[in-house]
Design brief:
By secondary structure, this protein is mostly helical. It has two helices and no strands. α1 crosses α2.
Length: 69
Amino acid sequence: MTNPDNSPPPAKEDWQGFRELDRAIAENRLTAYSWKKTWADPWGKAGLILFAVLFLAFVIYVVIYDGLL
């Protein structure tokens, strides 16, 4: 039998919290990899920069419009 997530089979003294923590760490690595992969792609980089500029413009607009500055 193969286990698709490459984790050992559960035992009686297995602690579920550590398995969840291990999975969260693995997902974080996948997230970091996908960000690096997107940044390496020219269209992905352009999309990220465009999103950041539009978001920053929106924040500046809200700050000025509400008179927070």
